């Protein structure tokens, strides 16, 4: 049990680092960096917990970003900060970059080395994974604010 | 009602102020819903009846309507710039200030001109990005030598990316070149580590166009389909450019697959 908790904490720390690193590339204002770090740790830990419970990666990602999106709406009302400032940096650890690159690399390889059934299945698998995880992240992030759109008034 | 006496000249000034804010937000990577909301709120605060906005990825068309249905329309081109959240934040803040205090159009234009990004220290970013990609490698289960190689490879890659950005190369060239060198350096991991493929794939993760991808989805689900497609295309192009860089590097090294 203790090992599991230590693993979660370590993972959370190593997920918070990229959130802050990429937030700096996006030039997030200094005071918002702590939200990025905390958000990155929260979404990554939530997703690992859901995945450890045996839920598929797409659904876990969706649930994690849905919960984080709700928290983000709360934060942005409390501290009067527009959400994109910290949400996008915080979900960076979830983004399926490797799948996306793999898919395109396979596509180019098909062009040079000829098309084989293995290549096609690799391309479709990686591409689908990348798109569905991306979709899960964005739907999860967007749903809380779509809930508020029906009143047609800004969140902050 | 001061709105009844809104002169054409002053309404033009208001329109200029609003569109300047909208262009800033579009260029530096705000999502469409935020741009529309901010322009409408600014319009209301500055004293026009309504603001109508039409967004495409490369330009903005904006019309303000006064109470007497006098309308002023203007178009501005938007050029793609590196994502900058501090500018988006400042514009949003200015919009909230406009609602609280009566600043007037001239003052608003002046304040918009003063918005400058507060860049982080270049070397700090290089260190943090190196550490970020190394963290990605750790999260995927890389061993410590692979962690170290990833750190070095992506730090150097970030340095190259910054240099190319400084010399105003377009993003596609920047991404391809950066991916090429990142993969070249990360391939050294095969000498020291048993998880070399994780180092290879993690060291290029600094080039994932996460912002355009997320923004495109957010735009599309909120009803801005053309903006969504435009940003999707941009993100896909950047992914393609990065993959080309990786493939060139693998061809040079005579490697196959990750």
From TrEMBL, chain A:
Pfam families: ThrE_2
Threonine/Serine exporter ThrE domain residues: 11-146
Membrane spanning residue stretches: 6-26, 31-49, 55-74, 86-108, 128-149
Subcellular location per the Swiss-Prot or TrEMBL entry: Cell membrane
UniProt superkingdom: Bacteria
An example Gene Ontology biological process: succinate transport
Family according to the record: Belongs to the ThrE exporter (TC 2.A.79) family.
Name the UniProt record assigns to this protein: Threonine/serine exporter, ThrE family (DUF3815 domain)
Species lineage: Bacteria, Pseudomonadati, Campylobacterota, Epsilonproteobacteria, Campylobacterales
Automatic annotation (TrEMBL), chain B:
UniProt keyword annotations, A-Z: Cell membrane, Membrane, Transmembrane, Transmembrane helix
Threonine/serine exporter-like N-terminal domain: residues covered: 17-252
Location(s), subcellular: Cell membrane
GO molecular function list: transmembrane transporter activity
A Pfam family it matches: ThrE
Cellular component terms (Gene Ontology): plasma membrane
Transmembrane domains' residue ranges: 119-138, 169-189, 195-214, 235-253
One GO BP annotation of this record: succinate transport
Name under which the protein is recorded: Threonine/serine exporter, ThrE family (DUF1212 domain)
Family statement: Belongs to the ThrE exporter (TC 2.A.79) family.
Organism name: Malaciobacter molluscorum LMG 25693
PANTHER family given in the database record: SUCCINATE TRANSPORTER SUBUNIT YJJP-RELATED, UPF0442 PROTEIN YJJB-RELATED
Membrane topology, from the record: Multi-pass membrane protein
């Amino acid at each position: 049990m203790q090992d599991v908790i230590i693993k979660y904490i370590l993972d959370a720390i190593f997920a918070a680092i990229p959130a802050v690193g990429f937030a700096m590339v996006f030039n997030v204002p200094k005071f918002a960096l702590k939200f990025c770090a905390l958000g990155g740790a929260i979404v990554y830990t939530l997703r690992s917990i859901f995945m450890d419970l045996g839920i598929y990666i797409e659904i876990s990602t969706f649930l994690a970003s849905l919960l984080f999106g709700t928290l983000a709406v709360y934060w942005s009302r409390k501290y009067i900060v527009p959400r994109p400032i910290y949400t996008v940096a915080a979900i960076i650890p979830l983004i399926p970059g490797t799948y996306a690159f793999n898919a395109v690399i396979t596509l180019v390889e098909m062009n040079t080395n000829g098309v084989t059934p293995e290549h096609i299945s690799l391309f479709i698998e990686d591409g689908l994974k990348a798109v569905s995880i991306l979709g899960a992240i964005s739907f999860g992030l967007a749903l809380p604010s779509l809930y508020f759109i029906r009143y047609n008034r800004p969140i902050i | 009602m001061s709105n009844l006496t809104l002169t054409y000249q002053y309404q033009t000034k208001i329109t200029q102020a609003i569109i300047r804010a909208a262009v800033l937000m579009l260029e530096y990577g705000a999502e469409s819903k935020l741009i529309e909301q901010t322009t409408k709120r600014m319009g209301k605060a500055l004293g026009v009846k309504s603001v109508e906005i039409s967004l495409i990825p490369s330009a903005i068309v904006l019309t303000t309507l006064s109470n007497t249905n006098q309308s002023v329309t203007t178009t501005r081109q938007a050029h793609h710039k590196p994502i900058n959240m501090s500018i988006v934040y400042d514009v949003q803040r200015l919009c909230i200030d406009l609602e609280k205090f009566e600043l007037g159009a001239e003052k608003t234009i002046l304040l918009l001109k003063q918005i400058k990004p507060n860049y982080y220290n270049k070397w700090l970013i290089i260190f943090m990005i190196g550490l970020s990609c190394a963290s990605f490698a750790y999260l995927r289960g890389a061993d410590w030598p692979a962690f170290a190689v990833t750190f070095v490879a992506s730090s150097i890659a970030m340095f190259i990316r910054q240099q190319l950005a400084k010399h105003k190369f377009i993003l596609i060239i920047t991404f391809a070149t950066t991916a090429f060198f990142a993969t070249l350096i990360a391939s050294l991991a095969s000498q020291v580590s048993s998880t070399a493929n994780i180092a290879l794939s993690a060291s290029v993760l600094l080039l994932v166009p996460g912002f355009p991808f997320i923004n495109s989805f957010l735009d599309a689900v909120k009803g801005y389909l053309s903006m969504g497609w435009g940003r999707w295309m941009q993100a896909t192009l950047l992914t393609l450019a990065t993959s080309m860089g990786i493939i060139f590097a693998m061809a040079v090294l005579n490697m196959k697959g990750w």
